[in-house]
Amino acid sequence: MLRTIREFWNDQRGIAMILVAIMLPVLVGFALVTIDMSRATGLHNDLQKGVDALALAAAAELDGRSDSITRADRAVTNLLANRTLFSTSGDHQLALTDVTVKYLTGIPASDNTRLSAAGIDSNGVTWASTDPKAVSFAEVTVNPSGLTDGAGAFATIFPASFLGASETMDIDPQAVAGFTQSICETVPIFMCNPFETTTPATSKTIQQAFASGDTYSREFRILKVDSNPGPGNFGLIDNNLTSLRDAIATGTAGTCYQRDKLTTKTGVTLGSVNAGINVRFDLYSSSLNKENKNWQYRPASNVRKGQKTGCSKYDPVTDGTALPLPPGDNYDSTKGYSDKIANASTFWASYWSVNHGGAAFPSIPSSSHPTSTTQPASRYDVYKYEVANNLVGDKSKNPTKESGTPSCFKGDTPTADPDRRLLNLAIVDCIANQAKINGHTQLKPDGYASVFLNTPVQKQDNSKDDEDSSAAEKPISLEIVDVDGPLGNGSLDKALRNEAQLYR
Length: 504
Fold this sequence. Notes:
2 domains, 13 strands
């Protein structure tokens, strides 16, 4: 008996089956967990791509206009209607009820600070907002409750309930995308905000001033200063072109500027600004003579400026036989602008009679005013009226006989659109940003404006060439005809490039 027991004890035949029987559940369990993790990873990746796309689509609409959130919600709804399926069985269509969409005014500086689906970070700061003009980020989170089949986010194959655990896993990826805009068709110049004051309560943004009609028909005069710029001054911005003159003459800085940041630049001869602007009036300085056939350096289709002859610099006649667009009344050098035009007939009588054969000033609508059509016509309105009604070729009085038709440019006939007497430039709160301007550090502009050039730029000593640095410049005379953002007339929209990018 003992021998039989001893032989049985020492017999190892079939032990592998015992080990397999013991380890088989473990191996199968590990296999199921591996399969579940692979499925979860695949589903997470698919859902992450989905919420990335939804966040980008929503963020692309957050341009600060009053309907931006409405358009963003519509973009999300339309994208979900494409019916991307995340499984071949059952109804796994990602629906609007499966995601939470929040719009944020900003995001935490550190990526380690978590954002909840409600737009509240782990420090308790609420970033979510319903103000369409304030939000610039879209946050999309997949709800932990899962997909539309109601089975939870993810049902596991592994029978976790035997171990007292849940047999479902929550898959709740999140994406945050932000909206930015760049402006590409602009010259590398900033103009100090003429409506900024030392008292914030009385200051206006350039958009507020435009929307209220404060900019309309005023003559603005801006002059470059090397330090402490304020209303009535302008400065330069970093650009990708070697020649400031060419950047202004052609109308591009060679780069796109983000609407919320730019860097100032100094050390450039102001004669370059003069020469670049005057190209648009059919005037070519000595160094630009070779460009008078180049389409990029073409003048405007209407270059009436009160000058008889000459193609190299601005030298207006003084006998009243030809007149440029008239200056404003009661110019205030502390603000950099004149009064608005009060009476159209009185203000425009001489200009119209001298340049259009003695005719009386017609009724010209204030088409560029942001809200009213009953205001006296601005300089830009009169200029556009001359172009639209074929009056550019009218000759002024003898002996000058000036017309608005370009004669110095030898290339193809300039077209009225795009208008070469319009420039896009940045507006900066120079009082608030004085330290940054002088320090050449990055700053946030107040906005961008489309400005109309009233006249060419003249030298204080007009015997000097446009690019001669020994003679100081006179101010640039202009009107503001539009601004960026929802308070503008929209003409700058074509120069803006909307961009949405993922941040989280």
